[in-house]
Amino acid sequence: MPSLSSLKQLQYLLSVSEHLNFTRAAESCFVTQSTLSAGLKELEDTLSTRLVERDRQTVLMTPVGLEVAQRARSILSAAKDLVAFTAEAQAPMSGILRLGVIPTIAPFLLPPTVKALRKAYPQLRLALREDLTANLLSRLEGGQLDMALIALPYECSHLIVKPLFDDALWLVGRKGDTQLKARTVNVTQAMSEQMLLLEEGHCLREHALYACHASTRASHNDLEATSLLTLIQMIESGFGIGLVPEMALRSGLIKGSTLITRPLTKPSPTRTIALVARRSTPRQADLESLAQVILHIQTKTPAL
Amino acid sequence: MPSLSSLKQLQYLLSVSEHLNFTRAAESCFVTQSTLSAGLKELEDTLSTRLVERDRQTVLMTPVGLEVAQRARSILSAAKDLVAFTAEAQAPMSGILRLGVIPTIAPFLLPPTVKALRKAYPQLRLALREDLTANLLSRLEGGQLDMALIALPYECSHLIVKPLFDDALWLVGRKGDTQLKARTVNVTQAMSEQMLLLEEGHCLREHALYACHASTRASHNDLEATSLLTLIQMIESGFGIGLVPEMALRSGLIKGSTLITRPLTKPSPTRTIALVARRSTPRQADLESLAQVILHIQTKTPAL
DNA sequence: TCTTCATGATCGAAAAAATCGATTATAAAC
DNA sequence: GTTTATAATCGATTTTTTCGATCATGAAGA
What we know:
Number of domains of chain A: 3
CATH topology of the largest domain in chain A: D-Maltodextrin-Binding Protein, domain 2
CATH architecture of the largest domain in chain A: 3-Layer(aba) Sandwich
Oligomer: homodimer
Mean pLDDT of chain A: 90
Low-confidence stretches of chain A: none
Number of helices of chain A: 11
Helix content of chain A: 40-55%
Structural class of chain A: alpha/beta
Strand content of chain A: 15-25%
Shape of chain A: rod-shaped
Radius of gyration of chain A: 32 Å
Distance between the termini of chain A: 73 Å
CATH superfamily of the largest domain in chain A: Periplasmic binding protein-like II
């Protein structure tokens, strides 16, 4: 079975069916009459069917030719649509952007980010996923995500990493806790032992442990929080103290509670918020744009 | 706005989206990997959009690439259908055949012809038009008809003419008409004057006039028939006599009436039934096939 | 009847493109 | 450290496309 080689030939046929005149049809295709003649002939040869009845006086479409022209019209229009589709999709910050965000960032950074994006780039549609860093990165590699918003340090040398800003860890405890008397505090061994952590998998757990100068810790399952919100609840209930990102505090995580916060003495432990993408991503420009939006939000958020 | 140049490139994209591997995709397209690489690159350049994310380890479709692949699939399938359509249509005696037939042939020849065609060529769909010769020929020239079944003599030098068989004219009159005593008769001057004719435009009118040795005749409008059937009715009503094609008699035109028929003395006036088509018709083979079918029917129809 | 005009087919040359084979580069696997 | 798998790249070759010129032919006009 032969197959169509060229869309141009279909265009020729279409043009002939409109003009019923080879010379004018050729003109409208910006080729010479001989080119069009040859092209149409080749199409007819490919299909081994006469599509156009012609002699030196008259040009007539055969019934098959008319039907083929109709089909050609629809094929060419689909091809045009395809081009138009990519033209629209290629616009920066438009189309669907699949963005992953870790749970210790999402509730605090996402609401203002989404709002700002909607305003700045109405063509952009965000498909969001909140998940642990490891899952996000594996989805990133698998092509199910375009970018991810995560916290460093984290091993991601195989990715494009765009660090955005540092997010300090603050100590959170109950009012009256004698350990939190000073304006800035150090994490002592004693405090480390009272430290409540998020459950395994959250990068913030590792960052907190690092701040406690402890690389690992046996997990007391019943004393681990599943989210920053539950962590706060546990602190308030007197289970211990916690290390919470400044970002969360800024966005009002402990508002309405009786807890107090203390920055840690310099060099204070921090995590670094970063935007990552596959090295081969076609959206490098969008990565920059998104980074700018998030940074702008960060600078506008009032400090503690 | 750029436009797609090649369907092959769409095929490449599709193949890559299936294999997620350039080398194997290339194999399945029967080209080398370098060819496929170049083709895909050109497609991406044409669309100025990354469709496939790739490095030396992994191949991933971009979201746009996936959508484009989907569209490519539908375009390629439409192209395939187009080819398949012509392949089917090009089969001899298939598709739509637009056939014109004059009113003095249609009622007699068409029923058995259609029946035979349906049996012999079930793929063939007849689009029939019953009309005067002049109208049929002009539609033929205009490409609205593929063939016509007419009666000669008629000026049609610009057409392919396939004479089928001669159709003698018989005299029809009332039983007891003394002019019709002999087994074969001559058209006398007196008979000519009683001759009932079809209205202007029917070629049979001219053929009858020729048999009467009269080239023209003033039309007595109220004494002209609009069809052979009405002509017969008028004869029966005693308005005169008529010249009727043998074909009509064979198919039972005067069955049930009291009329009698007489052949004319040799050389008896005849019309010649012929199949005509544009010189440039792509259905010359079908013309022959149709001619054979009609001839076969004619030989099987019992003589008078 | 002869000439001119309009038109599609055809041919050879030139230009453009597609394709291939070989090579390179690179990261992963062993 | 070597091998393997893979896509990009390059130059040469082949194939295709395009053009311009010419031919052939029927119609229209003189």
